[in-house]
């Protein structure tokens, strides 16, 4: 009798296993259905429409092929916009990550470390719009013999230096805008990098000191290699943010005085000029620039997981 019962259990096992898998698969579909629907409605469908519109004219009534993309890479105004974005990409990334690294290393394990970190991280609590309004008062300029209410020009007045039109001067206005972004995001980079520094084992540091390694040698041979994955994460985060920078430029200059960037021009073409074709092409350009960065970041994270 026991043998017969055991044979029945073994014979029915594949059926129960199949039913269990089928039940799990249907349950999984039920659970992921809302996320899939939201993804299709708010991402996939708009993306398909954007790609379609990028090959059409301003009011999306005529197919124009690659004309919008050709204009982006041949029109002088568009080339200037791309140049500004590249300037942002290089300087803002180097400044935020570089200053964050320097500050994190300098304040690591000092008594007032928490105070310094808190002070530098405070700007992250402010929105881009709020920070831009604050810095408008810092950069404020009054022509002629009027009294200067801007902080920087007031400081210059103390040393009898003529006031500067920081946001109107085409030689320095893009740098002035990058300073705002750097002020906001250096604290973020510092906190993330500082957490990575805390993760360096003490025995590694002690061994390097016993081998006679100086501070510079320890920085380049030990600190940088051991926090390289974190630096990669911070750098890619900065690159993605900077590629789609908009708020600072919109509030400070509105893209005037040769400070326009791709996201700002996308806004102008879509909402001010009603040029859906060119606006969509600019959106696709930003997307194509962000995707490689995301792919590199994902591959790096997978390599780290395999290494563990």
Describe the protein's architecture and organization.
This protein has 308 residues and is mainly α. The protein has two domains: 1-39; 67-307, MetI-like fold, CATH 1.10.3720. The chain has helices at residues 2-53, 67-74, 76-107, 113-121, 128-139, 151-158, 173-198, 202-210, 215-226, 228-243, 247-252, 262-272, 276-307. Helix 2 crosses helix 13 (276-307), helix 4 packs antiparallel against helix 7 and helix 7 (173-198) runs antiparallel to helix 10. Mean pLDDT is 88; it is low at 7-22.
Provide the CATH architecture of the largest domain.
Orthogonal Bundle
Low-confidence stretches: 7-22
What best-fitting shape do the alpha-carbon axes yield?
flat
Biggest sheet record: none
Number of domains: 2
Mean pLDDT: 88
Helix content: over 70%
- SSE topology string: HHHHHHHHHHHHH
Give the CATH superfamily of the largest domain.
Answer: MetI-like
CATH first level of the largest domain: Mainly Alpha
Radius of gyration (CA) equals: 27 Å
Number of helices: 13
Q: How many angstroms separate the termini?
A: 51 Å
- Structural class, from helix and strand content? mainly alpha
Instruction: Count every beta strand, where a strand is a DSSP E run of 2 or more residues.
Output: 0
Beta-strand content bin: under 5%
Classify the fold: give the CATH topology of the largest domain: MetI-like fold
